[in-house]
Amino acid sequence: MRLILLGPPGAGKGTQAQRLVEKHGIPQLSTGDMLRAAVSAGTDVGKRAKAVMDAGELVSDEIVNAIVAERIDQADCAAGFILDGYPRTLAQADAVSAMLEERGLKLDATIELVVDDAALVGRIVKRAEDAIAAGQTPRKDDNPEVFEERLREYYKKTAALIGYYHAKDLLRRVDGMMTIDQVTAEIEAILASIK
Ligand code: AMP
Fold this sequence. Notes:
Rossmann fold; ATP binding; nucleotide biosynthesis; alpha/beta; EC 2.7.4.3
């Protein structure tokens, strides 16, 4: 099963992706996590991405497309994967379509988590507080100022993917304002219906 989780920052994509990993045994491919790992490791990609990420802007299509193309060829992706936070631009959406086609694979669905913008900044602030409470360092971009830029980027560049996948009849929408368990149940119902 190959899925895309779509939605603005704070919509719950990461949380739902982790639940899908547990239930379906396929990996979560979060480009945000991969880029943060590259930043921590101080790789070339990390060095190029760091300032852009700290500002809440999008890293170049070229960088993220290359990371994903390499990742989906790894053995643990053979039975499928969940793309979380990728694609985020139309060029990335075209790139993932081409990657799948080249490998003779198909996308099963894109699930959009639909949320109220007003709730998002509160979720991000809470995520940072929870990280601190757990003794972790919160993400540098999880603060209200950078969050505004991340949300702007979403509307400028990513929201167009809703129409892109709708036109391909691959878009499924879930109310992301429900409880985490309710959202999970709805996603599972969608997956059962497309099997
Ligand atoms: P996320 O963890 O998905 O919120 O991503 C954190 C940051 O990583 C974003 O604000 C971007 O700077 C960068 N990033 C993650 N995924 C992508 C992507 N698909 N395209 C461009 N930039 C990305």
